[in-house]
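Okay, can you check this protein?
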Amino acid sequence: RRSSDLLNNNNSQYYGDFAIGNPKQRFTAVFDTGSAITWVPGAACKSDACSEHHRFDTVGSGSFQAKEEAKSAGAIHYGTGEVNYVGGHDTMSFCDSHANAGCHGKEDKVLAVPNQPFGMSTDQTSYPFRILPFDGILGLAPSGSKGSVVHQLKEAQALDRNVLGVYLSEDTHRSGSVSFGGVETAHIAKHSPLHWHKISNNSEWLV
């Protein structure tokens, strides 16, 4: 099991650290359970929104694989902005915030997601992305959504248990967390039971 801290951005977004590529290029992103798409700013993006954030350099990763050009490009329209991107595949890494903060420790403390599809932005609107404290979006939709990090973890049999635990702090000065492969019991009230419910379909976290 690997647990990553989630920072609280005004109780509206929760974002954390991860890395892409070999050697690792580090990013922060909103851990978005409502999306199957992961994207980060790309080196080809020259907008101010990109230049003020971390950008992924395909040349700097020995494990990067480009998508077929015809299937590569896409656009995402949000309520307050737009992102254009090209797609690829690479290894994604999550490091335990307590046992291996910043991915500077032993590799056995790293959760690797092989061949993870993701987008590299070629253009982003200045608003709102320039002022946001994170680089991109990390899609954590259920495993029925191809492209989701959860889907890739299950396909790779990377976890002993295919479980995703999320704790969202209501205090902006206190970190939440996401736990891959289990649930952090420290965030459950003592003597309180843990209830399991089936989701209505395997592509959305709906009960």
In short: The chain has a mean pLDDT of 92. The chain has four helices and eleven strands. Residues 149-155 form the longest helix (7 residues).
